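PROTEIN SPECIFICATION:
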Amino acid sequence: MEKSYSEIIAALGEDLSRPGLVDTPKRAAKAMKFLTRGYEQSLDEVVNGALFPSDNSEMVLVKNIELYSMCEHHMLPFIGKAHVAYIPQGKVIGLSKVARIVDMFARRLQIQEQLTTEIAEALQEVTGALGVGVVIEAQHMCMMMRGVEKQNAMMKTSMMLGSFRSNPATRAEFLSLVN
């Protein structure tokens, strides 16, 4: 990866021996590995057995989970927040694990639509919840820094599974709590 960054920088017409760029290929490769570290994680590792018996059958919502991802089309960042809710069915997941699931999928080359789906399906798979709802709102650098250059555009996506899809009252409660 370091060699590839050297080639990219040289292709821009820059001098790789310039003091500010000497270590840039190494730093850029290290940064890219960090930004895409979700490829090195699995759902089992992230959850790490943090499922606990519970009689709770009311909605559990974790709001405003910040996320940082990379658009798979332009390899530019998109930055935003996820709101994740589920209706437990006999067990709950550790609170931090919800954020870790968001991070695991966000830290991959991604599109927001797929990210939303992956988070919802993973939480459903792990918890066996009666329903899962995920809303993501993010700003995309590929739209802000290039192309149409719209600074205030915000993309919102949602995915509803189980009772969040089939029960209008559950969906409405979730969306009112998010907004």
